[in-house]
Amino acid sequence: LKYSEEQAKRKQLYNQIQETKGNIRVFCRCRPLSREESSTGCATVVDFDAAKDGDLGVLTGGSNKRTFKFDRVYTPKDGQVDVFADASPLVVSVLDGYNVCIFAYGQTGTGKTFTMEGPEHNRGVNYRTLEQLFSVARERSDTFTYNLSVSVLEVYNEQIRDLLATSPASKKLEIKQTSEGSHHVPGIVEAKVDNINDVWSVLQAGSNARAVGSNNVNEHSSRSHCILCIMVKTKNLMNGECMKSKLWLVDLAGSERLAKTDAQGERLKEAQNINKSLSALGDVIYALATKSSHIPYRNSKLTHLLQDSLGGDSKTLMFVQISPSEHDLSETLSSLNFATRVRGVELGHARKQI
Ligand code: ADP
Questions:
Q1: Residue 13: which H helix or E strand, with range?
Q2: Which residues sit opposite 155 in a β-bridge?
Q3: Most distant CA pair in the chain: distance in Å?
Q4: Domains plus CATH for the chain?
Q5: Domain Kinesin motor, which positions (predicted)?
Q6: Collapsed DSSP state (helix, strand, coil) of residue 320
């Protein structure tokens, strides 16, 4: 009874959200000024006066201020617990059979990895999600059995790398479509996880593998998309029904535009690939938010890979991460514009005017 009540409540909440904005939500999170920024007297360009209503103010110079609207706005004082409290109903819905995608988007250094991974003593969405899934699965164990497994992937220069593979793939990893129409990558490791300790060692193995073959780990991770996929197989013990669902947690490559003079050779190729996949992601989410008849999944590896969990009755959450510093103003505005477009708000306005 407890479960069905809880499920009914969740459904009601989703329906309310869906009525107004479909299944796409955008949360904006601003990091604190760094110690160095504070010590050099760096000015802050963000204003959180109406953050509770989802409004973020940005001082764009002189006395000009632009206001951006999101589903949530987190100030630098909001912690991992506050952020996860809002994401939690969404992640739990994977146990009800929904496919879910969560992204962290933004300029390098704005807290994407902090939000998704988090430091060991203050973990982020990835770890809290798995902890929550195990806990809810335990509560429902009279009615359901859940089998959880995880894959850890990286997309770099439009190529997929399996971070849990013990030996390098002999062939390029490719996305294939099954006869039922779902997408998968044959040959990738799907590590079964039974409890949170299993998860910890898998995540650790994933981040160790990320470092291999790159001279500078931070630089490499800012130019690749890091993806944790949680696959759930559910069996309803009452009626024997089985279900499969997936939850993707994605720490995206840095969205900063490269200075023209920097862009040569490998860097130029990387920058073009990042640009391509981030715009493809933006285009897909925008097409979904505006209920377009054509969703351009095939324009990048990332959107192709996540296709089953983007659209339909899947749920999407994007964290747009920003810096409060005046020095980052132009990148901040560019991220906020991207996130605003993604919500499909612009079209909403255009329609109203017509
Ligand atoms: P990104 O993944 O976007 O490149 P990071 O997650 O590495 O950025 O964050 C950059 C720095 O800012 C790190 O030192 C991180 O600990 C710090 N940081 C980011 N967000 C927060 C936050 N909300 N609270 C405290 N520190 C943060």
A1: helix 2-21
A2: 160, 225
A3: 65
A4: 20-353 (3.40.850.10)
A5: 23-345
A6: strand
Residues contacting residue 229 through CB under 8 Å, at least 6 positions apart: 150, 151, 152, 153, 246, 247, 248, 249
Burial letters for 93-126: b for 16+ Cβ neighbours within 10 Å, e otherwise? bbbbebbbbbbbbbbbbbbbbbbbbbeeeebbbb
pTM value is 0.90
Segment (H or E) for 250: strand 242-251
Least Cα distance to 125 among 91, 148, 98 occurs for 91
CA of 111 to the centre of ligand 1 (A): 3
Task: Tell me, using a 6 A CB cutoff, whether residue 72 lines ligand 1.
Answer: no
CB contact at 8 A, 130 and 279 = no
ipTM of the prediction: 0.99
pLDDT tens, position by position, 265-302: 888 888 889 989 999 999 998 888 888 899 999 999 99
Q: Whose CA is nearest to atom 5 of ligand 1?
A: 111
206 has binding-site annotation: no
Which residues fall within 8 angstroms of residue 43, CB to CB, at 6 or more apart? 325, 326
Q: Is 110 annotated as a binding residue?
A: yes
Residue 92 alpha carbon to ligand 1 centre in Å: 26
